[in-house]
Amino acid sequence: MSSEQALTGGLTPSQLADFERDGYLVIPNALPPTTVEALLAETHTLLEDFSLSDHPMTKFSTGEKSEHVGDDYFLSSGDKIRFFFEEDAFSPTGELLKPKARAINKIGHYLHALSPPFAALLDPALNPDLQGAGTSTGSVAVGHKESHPAAVARALGFKDPRCLQSMVICKQPEIGGAVPPHQDTTFLYTDPPSAVGFCHRWAPVRQRFVRAADGKSGTEFMDNAGPQFPVGEEYGEGKKGGSQDGEYVMGEVKAGSLILIHGNLLHKSERNTSQKGRIIYTFHVIEGEGTTYDERNWLQPPAEGFTKLFRG
């Protein structure tokens, strides 16, 4: 581990500068191969074992064709593991055209609590390879601990990071749906804004991030005791930093990488028409200390509250 890595306990000063400038950061080789294998095996087990007999056949829609908003199966999934189909997995008459494991758009949204392999990714106590990450000492040991979510969150300035949703996005061969331009802060809103996406890529992929005409991403931090997030309304489409006049920058991401995505960053991904799937695992973290979680967000906390990464 480099000396500058030890200073932040998760990210180097240059990595932090890149994130603050660009609004995203790619961290190669973020997970041990054994962890990736365990998560992929769990994903394939979930896809093969879920039942169609009692499934409402809810499709996950980004809004381009139809809406799933208002569907109770989706809206009540915050503390459950549920399966959402690709829109193009069905014929015009509603017949499923693909084997069920090749028809799912995503699995969500409580994998980080209900699935032991995914829970182990967030809880160092459950994963010996990651023990010690994110501790109050502000440094981590050798290996992959510096890429552990708790260590990365501490480096970003979180005091009480909470994981509020997690999902496997399958990007199925031939029918994997596109994700249009969006900002995570708009549907996981806190006051002040604090959302950060953690995206683990298990296959090579291209991701598009917006860069405004002035060369900036539209994501800035203010000088104070720790990193702070700007007001979300300032960075919507047509506003400062979120204008469609900006240029989308293509990010090439290798398998095994972690992408951090600032909640205000406008980003999108393309439809998958290839013969290969592109499974990714993504979860979102918000600040639990000194913020107010908006009661109008579709996702509301379970009885036990959102999952803590660490405290103190």
TrEMBL record:
Task: Return the InterPro entries for the record.
Answer: Phytyl_CoA_dOase-like (IPR008775)
Q: Which organism is it from?
A: Xylaria grammica
**Protein name listed in UniProt:** Uncharacterized protein
Respond yes or no to whether keyword Metal-binding is given for this record: yes
> Which superkingdom, per the lineage?
Eukaryota
Q: Please list the cofactors this protein needs.
A: Fe cation
Q: Which SUPFAM superfamilies match?
A: Clavaminate synthase-like
Protein family: Belongs to the PhyH family.
Q: Does the keyword Translocase apply?
A: no
Q: Name one GO molecular function term.
A: metal ion binding
Tell me the keywords, alphabetical order. Iron, Metal-binding
From which lineage does this chain's organism come? Eukaryota, Fungi, Dikarya, Ascomycota, Pezizomycotina
The record's Pfam families line, in alphabetical order, gives: PhyH
